[in-house]
Design brief:
single chain, 694 residues, alpha+beta, Rossmann fold, Elongation Factor Tu (Ef-tu), domain 3, Alpha-Beta Plaits, 5 domains, eight-stranded antiparallel β-sheet, seven-stranded mixed β-sheet, 28% helix, binds guanosine-5'-triphosphate, binds magnesium ion
Length: 694
């Protein structure tokens, strides 16, 4: 049996830009709830939520981390997420698994562009939103600025339920607005506080804020509004019900002030989570769908079929692979079987574990709203649906941003080539955005992510977990070569010095084909001047020669070759001789056909806020882009263009700096196009120098 009922559960996720204090706030909550015995600190590397070595090294979260705690009458499941945009997939998956979010905004940086992006994502999911304004103890802390920004940027009414007493070094506590009490905190991180009357100089501001808050609460419903306008006080019960309703509808954003690092002002937020945040029951049905789109709603009820969504896969040095599941309906006991409806296969469930940062605690049973881990599922991956019955219904998967940043990876130690791909595959199981493949033309291993940091972290993990050390370089551009003129040439291969000789002789006409046509071979030999059995060898010889063009050694494309004459020798002719002759002919023809270099052109769609569009366009113009059009999407604009791949190899980080992280883009291959003369000369020179160096 579970120790709590579903309506006592609060699944809550911490979100916002990097560095605002999410992990620190999580640590303070865990410590106050006695789920930990000391206040974990990100800077000291002892946070239970930032437990991965890569997180400790960077002093910033990379993965979502989960920890339960009990507070008042609630069981809270806390999900801390990374605020760096490189790791946004952790947030996207987390949003599918929680009913509530706490936006942690710090009183210095307030709302940065990435928080704006996250806010939009949270709005789309329709989750309940609460805000904690942290770092009130820091220099230049400005609580009111954050409230203004919430109005302006998030476009929602902030409802300050606590306000700070003093700031910077003088920050000493918070006023609970609804109770009109001052909570004066110790600054030693203990979270201890004394409840006293409001400092006199704050009476006016408290009164003013109180009236605004009550008015906002009264607006939740007409009856309350009437009572309020008639001068009546709202009862505690009415206040509490208005808070819940307004929170679930998003009428306002309840705001709390404090310092996560000093553990000040955190308990009022925890009380609110316990009393007003949504339980899984309040959210209503979740929809399962089959391949035909038939729907099967499930609700947070113990009696229903078990349904769960795997939103995270982690690997533990002792337990191995662990799948982290959010249960939406039904219950599950250890040592049972579930059906993975995504992979259409059964999975054995052994122990069921509650997560406490990196440690785990076995559970007897889980039910709706629980987030738990199961070890060693054979086929299950992130995004899969697990059910209690064998039916092919799944939860919808979110869409992830496309990996647009490509880097070439090369092992530092020779012989490690074979280890790279399997190791990368393991890492990719934990990250749905990361992609790895081998580029056929350049032969390079390509690792694609959202940005430089995303790829670098994957490389750090390769080293730590699999002992594979790699070097990262900008990937090579897969140029190609083609011709612009027509030529008729002879290729003759003759070796007739005693014994069995070699003899092959061909005349070919080489001409350009349209872009994308590839290669066309026509045989126009008549009268058996070249015997039929040697014709395929001629084509082979040409294809061989096309693998490496004469300009810079890139593959040759879009050429037509007509074989129209030649001669042979009864004894000395062979397939090999004709192959060599054809190859020689093709190389000669290329020299006479004005060879040119082709480069891949990409279709790119860049989405940025209106005010950044000028800079983005200017920058793209300097990258030889052909801009095709711009359309408005609310406050954002979407630009479509064609750009040479060579110009946007590092665009992910460039766009981030041009737009302060407010821009995103997608790209896909469009076609090959001639490289402009001046650039071509440079590439050819470099390629030849590289060849000479080898
Ligand atoms: N002075 C002060 N520092 C804080 C406070 N909260 C967090 N910090 C510091 O701010 C830095 C970032 O805090 P984190 O808790 O790691 O922030 P985060 O939001 O989890 O950041 P990401 O994991 O990168 O998204 C750390 O150095 C903390 O010590 C606070 O309330 N006051
Ligand atoms: Mg963090």
């Amino acid at each position: 049996m579970r120790k709590y009922s579903t309506d006592a559960l609060r699944d809550i996720m911490l979100v916002s830009q990097s560095g605002s204090g999410k992990t620190s706030l999580g640590e303070a909550m865990l410590f106050n709830a006695k789920a930990t015995t000391r206040l974990g600190k990100v800077l000291e590397g002892n946070s239970v939520l930032d437990f991965e070595p890569e997180e400790q090294k960077r002093q910033s979260s990379i993965f979502s981390a989960i920890h339960n705690f009990r507070w008042k009458n609630s069981e809270v499941i806390l999900l801390d997420t990374p605020g760096d945009s490189n790791f946004i997939s952790e947030v996207i998956l987390g949003l599918k698994s929680c009913e509530n979010v706490i936006f942690v905004l710090d009183a210095i940086d307030s709302i940065k562009p990435h928080s704006e992006t996250l806010w939009k994502m949270v709005l789309d999911e329709g989750l309940a939103k609460i805000c904690f304004v942290s770092k009130m103890d820091r220099e230049r802390a400005d609580f009111n600025q954050v409230l203004d920004d919430i109005k302006q940027i998030f476009d929602i009414r902030p409802l300050p339920l606590t306000i700070p007493i003093g700031k910077e070094d003088d920050f000493s506590g918070v006023v609970d607005i609804l109770r009109k009490k001052a909570l004066m905190f110790e600054k030693d991180g203990s979270g201890a506080y004394k409840e006293v009357s409001i400092p006199e100089d704050m009476n006016d501001i408290v009164e003013e804020t109180y009236n605004e808050v009550i008015e906002d609460l009264a607006e939740v419903d007409d009856e309350l509004m009437e009572k309020y306008l008639d001068g009546g006080e709202l009862s505690p019960r009415e206040v509490s019900s208005a808070l819940s309703i307004g929170l679930s509808r998003g009428d306002f954003l309840p705001v709390f002030a404090g310092s996560a690092l000093l553990n000040m002002g955190v308990q009022p937020l925890m009380d609110f989570v316990s009393s007003a945040a949504l339980s899984p029951i309040q959210v209503g049905e979740r929809i399962l769908r089959d391949a035909e789109g038939n729907e099967k709603p499930v609700k947070a009820d113990d009696e229903e079929m078990f349904s769960g969504y795997v939103f995270k896969t982690m690997s533990d040095p002792y337990t191995g692979k662990m799948s982290v599941v959010r249960c939406f309906s039904g219950t599950l006991n250890p040592d049972s079987t579930l059906y993975n409806a995504t992979r259409k296969t059964k999975e054995r469930i052994g122990s069921i574990l509650a997560l406490e940062g990196k440690s785990q605690r076995p559970l007897d049973q889980v039910g709706p709203g629980d987030i738990f881990a199961v070890a060693k599922l054979k086929e299950t991956k992130t995004g899969d649906t697990l059910l209690g019955e064998n039916i092919d219904y799944t939860f919808e998967n979110p869409t992830f941003p496309e990996a647009v940043m490509n880097m070439a990876v090369k092992p530092k130690t020779k012989g490690d080539e074979d280890k790279i791909l399997p190791a990368l595959q393991r890492i990719m199981e934990e990250d749905p955005v990361l992609k790895a493949y081998r580029d056929e033309q350049t032969g390079e291993f390509i690792l694609s992510g959202l940005g430089q940091i995303h790829i670098e972290i994957a490389v750090d993990r390769l080293k730590r977990r699999f002992g594979v050390e790699v070097e990262l370089t900008t990937p090579k551009v897969p140029y190609k070569e083609t011709i612009q003129g027509v030529a008729k040439v002879q290729g003759k291969y003759k070796k007739q010095t005693g014994g069995h000789g070699q003899y092959g002789d061909v005349w070919i006409e080489v001409s350009p084909l349209e872009r994308g046509a590839g290669f066309e071979f026509t045989n126009r030999i008549v009268g058996g001047v070249i015997p039929r059995q040697y014709i395929p060898a001629v084509e082979k010889g040409i294809l061989e020669a096309m693998k490496s063009g004469i300009l810079a050694g890139y593959p040759v494309v879009d050429v037509g070759v007509k074989l129209y004459d030649g001669s042979y020798h009864e004894v000395d002719s062979s397939e090999l001789a004709f192959k060599i002759a054809a190859s020689m002919a093709f190389k000669k023809a290329m020299e006479n056909c004005k060879p040119v270099l082709l480069e891949p052109i990409m279709d790119i769609t860049v989405t940025v806020p209106e005010d950044a569009m000028g800079d983005v366009m200017g920058d793209l113009n300097s990258r030889r882009a052909k801009i095709e059009g711009i359309v408005s999407r609310g406050k954002y604009q979407e630009l479509k263009a064609k750009v040479p791949l060579a110009e946007i190899l590092t665009y992910a980080s460039d766009l981030t700096s041009i737009t302060s992280g407010r821009g995103v883009y997608t790209m896909s291959f469009s076609h090959y196009e001639e490289v402009p003369r001046n650039i071509q000369e440079k590439i050819v020179k470099e390629a030849r120098a590289e060849k000479d160096a080898k």
